[in-house]
Amino acid sequence: MPPSSSGMPPLVADENVDSRIIRFLRDHGFQVFSIREELPGTGDGAVLAESVARHALLLTEDADFGEWVFAHHEPTMGVLFLRYRPAELAAMSDALLRTLQSHGEGLFSKFTVITPKKIRIKDI
């Protein structure tokens, strides 16, 4: 997947990412490859491999990817882990967009935890 027209990093959205977040990102010019749309049922290891093959950040709501990256040292381009309650969907979408716009390619090789109110970025 080549860089997006917005100059922002491409994304691979894990199967658990809300479709409204994917649509929101696409509406803002991001290239988002959706596991749910293209490869439903894909296991976590294969999802990580797909993001690496596409040179894309992995967008997920699955905390297990922290273990994959830090304990098992699985290769990754970077992970964006979303933590929010269903009622915070709009605020989460806005926080994610702000994070991507302000950090862009600086999110590669990072594990980023994003909530509607804060972000934490850790080197991988």
Cα-based radius of gyration, to the nearest Å: 13 Å
β content, as a range? 15-25%
Number of helices: 5
Q: How is the largest sheet built, in terms of strand order?
A: 2-1-3-4-5-6
Low-confidence stretches: 1-5
Helix content: 25-40%
Secondary-structure-based class equals: alpha/beta
Whole-number tally of structural domains:
1
Largest sheet: 6 strands, mixed
Q: Whole-Å distance between the termini?
A: 22 Å
CATH class: Alpha Beta
The run of helices and strands is EHEHHEHEHEE
CATH architecture: 3-Layer(aba) Sandwich
Question: How many E strands?
Answer: 6
CATH topology annotation? Rossmann fold
Global geometry: globular
Mean pLDDT: 92
SSE arrangement:
Blueprint: E1 11-13, H1 19-27, E2 32-34, H2 35-38, H3 44-53, E3 57-60, H4 64-70, E4 79-82, H5 89-103, E5 110-114, E6 119-123
Parallel strand pairs: 1-2, 1-3, 3-4, 4-5
Antiparallel strand pairs: 5-6
Task: Describe the structure concisely.
The chain is α/β, with parallel strands linked by helices and 124 residues long. It contains five helices and six strands; from the N terminus they run βαβααβαβαββ.
